[in-house]
Design a protein that fits this description.
Blueprint (H helix, E strand, L loop, with lengths): L7 H38 L7 H6 L5 H11 L5 H13 L13 H38 L5 H15 L3 H15 L12 H30 L2 H8 L4 H9 L4 H25 L5 H10 L3 H29 L9
Helix pairs in contact: 1-13, 5-8, 5-11, 6-8, 7-8, 7-11, 8-11, 9-10, 11-12, 11-13, 12-13
Length: 331
């Protein structure tokens, strides 16, 4: 007796689940390859320094015995393949070596400094998303069908100019205006909620401008769709039309750009932290580069690179889950 064929809906669900699983496997494999390339690049970083990196770090007057001792401590007297294997194994075990200038464990430095950086970047990311998305939807609603051309011109000009300003220049301007001239917020340091205002603003203003522009453009496209006209034809309240029908359909491009912004925010903390004397990884990275502390530079490059890769990976997975019709599942 021949078994009855599965319902069409069940077949589609099975295929969608299979497609998502294959997509997840492919994206995970790409993430692992990217992480391997990141580790390889950071390993060769110390070997691309002209001359002896240990001599460069310790200075030309350092005794030869001290240079040899440091080279042995870093494993630089071993064959290159052995150095690479040891480096990867140590990193996978959470051991990033010892600072050449302070003698501290680099892993301990990261544990102490990372929370300040990730908290700053996380708050800036949330502020950017929760300001830019409603602002973009609002501007799409106000300027749809070529209405309010002056408002549209002012919005695009303001956000375009703001998005083009680097975060460290925004930081300098905010410090001059709100910490030196008006003296509303502290100039530098991490002490209390008020100390977060200027660093968060410096990191979030440009992403707010970029993301709100994308949300507005996508919102204009969504508001021109037939199902929006149908919702309006049923005389649904404007709040329901925009929040329930328009906003969810702008999530795909919004999530894509937001993921890129998250990686950029973490990287942008490097300069912003130094302007505000923020006790985070960015300040440590700049100090390590200035002092030629190569183990610390390697470790922080791995940390920042891993955060960017994981942010992009999370966005790709979220897009595949939220929109099963997306062509991203085939990539």
């Amino acid at each position: 007796m021949t078994a009855a064929p599965a319902p069409l809906g069940a077949q589609r669900n099975w295929w969608a689940g299979r497609t998502r699983s294959a997509y997840l496997v492919r994206r995970t494999a790409r993430l692992l390859v990217s992480l391997a390339l990141l580790l390889t690049a950071t390993f060769f970083m110390i070997h691309l320094v002209p001359g002896d990196p240990v001599r460069s770090a310790l200075g030309p007057t350092a005794p030869a015995s001290l240079v040899a001792e440091r080279r042995a401590a870093l494993g630089l007297d071993e064959p290159l393949v052995t150095q690479y294997v040891d480096y990867v194994r140590n990193v996978l075990h959470g051991d990033f070596g010892t600072s050449m200038t302070t003698g501290e464990s680099v892993t301990d430095v990261i544990k102490v400094r990372a929370p300040a950086t990730f908290k700053l970047a996380g708050i800036a990311f949330l502020v950017a998303v929760f300001v830019a998305v409603p602002l973009g939807v609002l501007m799409a609603a106000l300027t749809r069908d070529s209405r309010r051309r002056g408002l549209e011109l002012g919005f695009t000009a303001a956000t375009g100019g703001l998005a083009a300003i680097p975060s460290f220049l925004l930081a300098v301007g905010l410090v001059y205006l709100f910490a030196v001239t008006i003296q509303v917020f502290p100039v530098a340091g991490r002490a209390g909620a008020s100390s977060y205002v200027l660093p968060v603003a410096a990191l979030a203003l440009a992403p707010i401008a970029s993301l709100s522009r994308i949300v507005r453009v996508e919102g204009l496209r969504v508001l021109d769709q037939d199902y929006i006209r149908t919702a309006r034809g049923k005389r649904l309240p404007a709040r329901l039309v925009y929040v329930r029908h328009a906003l969810p359909n702008t999530l795909t491009p919004t999530l894509t750009l937001a993921g890129l912004l998250l990686g950029g925010l973490v990287a942008g903390t490097v300069l912003v932290e130094n302007i505000f004397a923020w006790p985070g990884l960015g300040t440590s990275l700049v100090q390590a580069v200035a002092q030629k502390d190569f183990p610390t530079v390697q470790a922080l490059a791995v940390v920042f690179g891993t955060v960017v890769l994981l942010a992009n990976f999370a966005v790709d997975i979220a897009l595949g889950v939220i929109d099963p019709r997306s062509t991203i599942l085939e990539s």
